[in-house]
Amino acid sequence: MKITIFGTGYVGLVTGACLADVGHEVLCMDVDEGKIERLKNGQIPIYEPGLAGIVSHTVEAGRLSFTTNVEEAVAHGVLQFIAVGTPPDEDGSADLQYVTAVARSIGQFMDGYKVVIDKSTVPVGTADKVRAAVQAELDRRGLDHDFDVVSNPEFLKEGAAIQDFMKPDRIVVGTDSEKAAELLQEVYYPFNRSRDRMVFMDIRSAELTKYAANAMLATKISFMNEIANLAERLGADVEAVRQGIGSDPRIGYHFIYPGCGYGGSCFPKDVQALARTASGVGYDAKLLNAVESVNYAQKHVLFDKVSHYFQGNLDGKVVALWGLAFKPNTDDMREASSRTLMEDLWKAGAKVQAFDPEAMEETQRIYGDRDDLVLCGTKEQALKGADVLVICTEWKEFRSPDFELVASALREPVVFDGRNLYEPEMLDRYDLIYYAIGRGTNQ
Ligand code: UGA
């Protein structure tokens, strides 16, 4: 099938590459000329395991191509996926200007039936706005082409996006049109063969499903972080509690890992946007607001522990930092807990020596050159001359470090672990003092 994707960001590129991989003819359009030029030359703008390989072989096979030409993009596919960004407005609600701009372009150039599919995470009611924008352009042109608008939210996790797309838990499709439903069924058939994963519903419910999923996951995390904070004050170990509650299938083991707060481009933005949507319809979403404020506080917890250890005097201290990305297997630093920590440390006069397996360039891009940040080539280098070690991201290579070396390299043998990577007794053996999240009273 011929498919057009607007937006070559995370969602657009993964969707385009995976659809081309199973045989569809995909044209990806973006207004960013530099980005399209680089993609044409085989340069992938994001770090995502497996993506580069799929892009290169589908481009070679002629099934995936790129353009900045809107007219060509609208002409190409019967299916027009909108996968452009919806950054938060100043008040936290999603900014829809890019989504509606694409909708207008579609109306401006369409010459026959099209299905316009919202893949970006958009507030409930956006499909109506998209429909109105397309229709307004058609009216302006005096044309009466038929079209449908569909909500088809994506549930990709960064670092596992290809696998999530190829083997989805569910494919949510919100539509009021049988014709559009049939076309979507055909597009997704290759991903849906072993069992039926397609869940059809009305458009507004599909739009809300996306937010509900992310808000639920964020709630689980903030809940566990609250229990962790409580465990510290009560002399309990949250890791034992986690296993104790996770064994109940109604709770489950997934997404109940306490830590130094959730980050990324989705949870913080989506929880806020849903809370805004709620207040927009006169509903005070108390739980969502609490999820958000617990997370905000949790991002400062590591700093509080470090500061407490040094009795509030961090001036001139050197902190080794392992992990900058908001989670492993990505170079994404958006809303990363490491940023809150570094900014808190800098304000207090401390210096940071940081290492991350993928996010070094991104950190350099965000913070530039500054005296209180040294970007190190290895995790061992980050330790040299540092007072203490802090861990913000659970990269695999941090899981079993050479503890002897850690203990000897640091001026003070102290490890602050924001991801609970180690057993406290293990570090005890190396005479390392260990502060984790929610593990007993000395935390
Ligand atoms: C999230 C959702 O997991 C995807 O299902 C969704 O499609 C995506 O947002 C989206 O809306 O596009 P992602 O932001 O890539 O995916 O990252 P996650 O793996 O969900 O992690 C988010 C944050 O939660 C990370 O900072 C992670 O460290 C933290 N986390 C996760 C915890 O602190 N504890 C946990 O138990 C799990």
From TrEMBL:
- Record keywords, A-Z: NAD, Oxidoreductase
Q: In which pathway does it act?
A: Nucleotide-sugar biosynthesis; UDP-alpha-D-glucuronate biosynthesis; UDP-alpha-D-glucuronate from UDP-alpha-D-glucose: step 1/1
Query: Organism's domain of life?
Result: Bacteria
Q: Does the keyword Oxidoreductase apply?
A: yes
Q: Which PROSITE patterns match?
A: PROKAR_LIPOPROTEIN (PS51257)
Catalytic activity of the protein: UDP-alpha-D-glucose + 2 NAD(+) + H2O = UDP-alpha-D-glucuronate + 2 NADH + 3 H(+)
Key word ATP-binding present? no
Q: Where is the UDP-glucose/GDP-mannose dehydrogenase C-terminal domain?
A: 320-424
**Which enzyme class?**
oxidoreductase
Which InterPro entries does this chain map to?
Answer: 6-PGluconate_DH-like_C_sf, NAD(P)-bd_dom_sf, UDP-Glc/GDP-Man, UDP-Glc/GDP-Man_DH_C, UDP-Glc/GDP-Man_DH_C_sf, UDP-Glc/GDP-Man_DH_dimer, UDP-Glc/GDP-Man_DH_N, UDPglc_DH_bac
Q: Which Pfam families match?
A: UDPG_MGDP_dh, UDPG_MGDP_dh_C, UDPG_MGDP_dh_N
Any idea of its EC number? 1.1.1.22
What family does the entry list? Belongs to the UDP-glucose/GDP-mannose dehydrogenase family.
Name of the protein described by the UniProt record: UDP-glucose 6-dehydrogenase
Which organism does this sequence originate in? Marinobacter salinisoli
